[in-house]
Amino acid sequence: xxxxxPQRILKAVQRKATVGDxxxxxxxxxxxxxxxxxxxxxxDEKGSILDSVVNEVSPVTVLELGTYCGYSTVRIxxxxxxxxxxxxxxxxxxxxxxxxxxxxxxxxxxxxxxxEGASGDCIPWMKEHFGVQAFDLVFLDHWKERYLPDTKLLxxxxxxxxxxxxxxxxxxxxxxxxxxxxxxxxxxxxxxYYRSHLExxxxxxxxxxxxFLGY
Length: 215
Ligand SMILES: O=C(CSCCNC(=O)c1cc(-c2ccc(F)cc2)cc(O)c1O)c1ccc(O)c(O)c1
Ligand SMILES: [Mg+2]
Description:
Layout: H1 5-16, H2 22-35, H3 43-57, E1 61-65, H4 71-77, E2 85-90, H5 93-106, E3 112-116, H6 119-122, H7 126-130, E4 135-140, H8 147-156, E5 160-168, H9 171-175, H10 177-185, E6 189-197, E7 204-212
Parallel strand pairs: 1-2, 1-4, 2-3, 4-5
Antiparallel strand pairs: 5-7, 6-7
Helix pairs in contact: 1-2, 1-5, 2-5, 3-4
């Protein structure tokens, strides 16, 4: 096929969504992925849980690991008050290029910093480069085997502090067993599993919310 799936997702947004209307961007992507082609967005069902956690935390600084086409970036950014922002990391340059256009179409570019690079390389520079003290909320949705090492790296870099909330996608499907074991057994995290379904399917999946309790 000539175009990539992310390119077809962007086209669906440009056809169906209204510029400056984040909800219409979300609706257009969900409709396309439910009725045309499945894609690895967090989706509408888990997305509603993500929304409720963002509203509960009302974060000033959010870190998203794994942008893909920017669907969850838009979901998060649309709920942020003026002055709050989400830094989103994407390793794949093709995904990043599409995400920039999706975020721009939603009109939320002022609340989003998209960084291209590998999480393991970028995280150590976060404090210095973005003047971030610590993150209020981290949404993990990138390589599943990077959830645990990147969580430990965030701890080591002092980017996670008492009260920071980690919200992890796909803890059942594809699954992140080592991460789950860590946050559920560590005395320094309070963890809760939100049972749901893999985006646009009937398969089980869920989000794990873990609150850092401090040292
Ligand atoms: O794809 C990646 C890894 S980053 C995306 C992580 N996310 C997932 O993998 C992910 C996967 C699934 C899922 C997939 C197939 C199933 F059968 C069931 C579930 C669902 C999700 O919600 C996800 O978030 C990448 C990186 C750099 C590159 O250069 C590159 O070509 C590719
Ligand atoms: Mg995911």
